[in-house]
Design goal:
The chain is of the alpha/beta class. It contains 18 helices and 17 strands. It has helices spanning 7-14, 37-46, 74-80, 91-103, 115-126, 140-148, 176-185, 210-222, 234-244, 253-262, 288-301, 312-324, 328-347, 365-368, 378-390, 399-402, 426-441, 459-462; strands at 32-33, 61-62, 108-112, 132-135, 152-155, 194-197, 227-230, 266-270, 281-285, 360-364, 392-393, 395-397, 414-418, 449-453, 464-467, 486-488, 494-495. Helix 4 (91-103) packs parallel to helix 12 (312-324).
Length: 498
């Protein structure tokens, strides 16, 4: 059994470092329930040890993703009452278009039902057989759409992006020498576009610097290729620039967001993250010819250009959410939650990606479960263990997500504890920390997994697994053993016994 800092000791050390209260309060709450250890074991077995296949009612604290899981503001809900559901010419679309122009400055807005719809439209418009897309690492669906269109993904991230323990503050940077070499060797028209992702997800939610962004912009101009941002988490990236990059501390968050957007020819957004909405995304560009191509694709795959797979009330909530995403108080409070959880775990000896990123804490499964070979899926295994220990749902970000076909995998092997915006309290984060630390104590006892079903595309969503040996009893000592013995309404557990 591995020795780690005790939970009680950890809480004592952190007792004077509580989170500053966020700039909102709860108005509507959703009951959640901690299933018994026996019920959790049945649930993860039925899900094929894939946390994506768990039913939400079997989850206590859901850190699977921040996509579409955030809390709407009262202003967003009020705006939804203004939704114009006209098929064409919707007022709601034009209000959304105006919000994008005000905040990001892009001329043309093509809505989609969510981020991967926007990625698909962009790939259809720009990528052809043999096209190349240089990018800082990859995101699963972004790469999939490029490859389905016949393109080739090329990693041009800095080396630090692949080093979980590196303290480098801008792991979202692109390696300029590597990018220049890729652009120089390409035939005319071979580069579909260069992509740079804000708060790089697969590296642990890590930002890029404006200095690096400007240099990438200059290279793409020199080689006459489009430069597209994945601006899904542009607000957090702007906050990190303000905090960590010299010369920007006095800039406002809206200024920095606009400055980042101005460096690119266009951007895609999965608005289910920074913009708080349960559905929605968009492509925003400045080139009229590219906008025309995107609109031709949107009517085939998404809907009419004035709604793109969203209802009018969805577009109203999105327009308001875009404006709220520039509020530094809101963004700072969200990032502070990740830092709090990550700080507690780091103090307790849990191996995590550093620096702590924007939207999640990423646990390094290779260091957490060193006894497991990569073929035994350490990150998938660890995500299952967190659920068994305390009903915490997380997500694998490693070989299951990253390997394509039979190609060798040499990327990171992480478990992502993702924080929905404006949803969970410090009590929930303390519970998550206790669960992770408890599992670390029993790490040597945890067996690996074997894959029993592998889908053709994006296997992490639907793959199924079976354990190589029986998992140990991982429930935290003293946890109620019967269903319904512990419930929560506002985040503070309450006893059902009188």
């Amino acid at each position: 059994m591995r020795r780690v800092t005790g939970v009680a000791t950890m809480r004592t050390m952190r007792s004077m470092e509580r989170l500053t209260p966020p700039p909102w309060k709860a108005k509507v709450v959703e009951p959640i329930e901690l299933r018994s250890p026996a019920e959790r074991r049945i649930a993860i077995g039925n899900a094929g040890f894939n946390t994506f296949l768990l039913r939400s009612e079997d989850v206590f604290v859901d850190l699977l993703t921040d996509s579409g899981t955030s809390a709407l503001s009262q202003e967003q809900r009020a705006a939804m009452e203004l939704g114009d559901e006209a098929y064409a010419g919707s007022r709601s679309f034009f209000r959304l278009e105006q919000a994008v122009r005000e905040v990001f400055g892009y001329r043309y807005v093509i809505p989609a039902h969510q981020g991967r719809g926007a990625e698909h439209l962009l790939a259809r418009a720009l990528v052809g057989p043999g096209s190349k897309v240089p990018s800082n690492l990859y995101f699963t669906t972004s790469r999939e759409h490029v490859e389905l269109a016949g393109g080739v993904w090329e990693d041009v991230a800095v080396d630090e992006a692949r080093e979980p323990a590196s303290p480098f503050p801008f792991k979202g940077n692109i390696d300029l020498a590597r990018l220049e070499e890729a652009l120089a060797r390409a035939a005319p028209g071979e580069i579909a576009y260069v992509r740079q992702e804000a708060c790089l997800n697969m590296a642990g939610g890590q930002p890029f610097s404006i200095e690096n962004l400007a240099a990438v912009r200059e290279l793409t101009r020199r080689h006459a290729v489009p430069f597209i941002l994945d601006a899904t988490r542009i607000s957090e990236n702007a906050l990190f620039v303000k905090e960590c990059e010299p010369g920007y501390a006095e800039r406002s968050l809206p200024e920095l967001i606009r400055m980042i957007a101005d460096h690119a020819d266009g951007a895609i957004f999965s608005s289910k993250k920074d913009h708080f909405v349960p559905i929605g995304g968009l492509v925003a560009v400045n080139d009229v010819e590219l906008a025309r191509k995107l609109r031709e694709q949107v009517v085939v795959y998404e809907g009419f250009p004035h709604y793109g797979g969203m209802a009018g009330h969805d577009m109203e909530a999105l327009a308001q959410g875009i404006r709220e995403s520039t509020d530094e108080r809101i963004v700072s409070a969200y990032v502070a939650q990740a830092r709090y959880l990550g700080g507690v775990l780091e103090e307790a000896g849990v191996p995590i990606v550093l620096p702590i990123g924007a939207h999640a804490v990423f646990v390094d499964a290779r260091r957490f479960l060193p006894q497991l070979r990569l073929e035994e899926f350490p990150a998938q295994t660890l995500a299952a263990a967190f659920y068994l220990a305390g009903g915490v749902r997380s997500m694998e970000r490693g070989i299951v997500s990253g390997q394509h076909g039979s190609e060798p995998y040499d990327g990171l092997e992480l478990v992502r504890l993702t924080l929905p915006r404006r949803v969970y309290t410090q009590e929930h984060l303390t519970w998550v920390a206790d669960v992770v630390i408890h599992v670390l104590r029993h790490a040597d006892e945890i067996p690996g997994l074997r894959m029993t079903y592998e889908p053709e595309h994006l296997r992490f969503f639907q793959a199924r697994f079976a354990p190589l040996a029986r998992f140990p009893e991982l429930a935290i000592e003293g946890e109620p053993a019967t269903r319904g013995a512990q419930k929560t309404v506002t985040g503070v557990p309450i006893s059902t016994k009188r």
